[in-house]
User: What shape does this take?
Amino acid sequence: MKITIRSFARFREIFGEARTIETTGDAKPKNVLYSLCEDEGCTELLFVPDGTLHPHITVMLNGKRLSARETEETTLTAGDVLVIYPPVSGG
Amino acid sequence: MISIQKEDIDIGSLIQQSRDIDMGAQVVFVGTVRDDGIEAIEFEADRETAIADLRALAAEAMDKFGLISVDIIHRDGLLEKGETILVIIAGAAHREEGFDGCRFIIEEIKRYVPIWKKDITATGESHWHD
Assistant: This one.
């Protein structure tokens, strides 16, 4: 199935503004993002050495922010849109 | 008013528009581009989510601090030194609520609202803020 990954700012320059990727039917957001980072050779960008998502990264699924636990447990479905935010710095 | 815009902000007009006779205080925060040896700052936002976040934040601040009104306008795009980045106006019956509410809003914006800034130097180099 296909899902879309969008990113902004520093992450947009690495992963692109939006890309559609093919995943398996039981894919979880964290696993998908780990594979994405492996493909780009930059796992340290989103993940700490123990394999958990960096706490300052925000992951959204279809416009809703996910907790770290939700990134590991939520099953993606076709057409889902994952968004990854680097640390914010507005104001 | 809640907005993310490229255009400059008419702060005086915004203050007048948000004023209400129930207010005893309007606390105004203005964020500007400081000369840190840079040429400009480029702002990028996830506009849809950022606007939704700012609206929710304004409502939360009004509820939490008893504010009468909240206006938040954030710029995006390329801003030069001295330009206005952000204006927050917290309208309150008393100054304490206004100061507390305004401080709460700016800290929360910096904590989670999806807006990013990238420094641009005179030589054209750039780097994103973390």
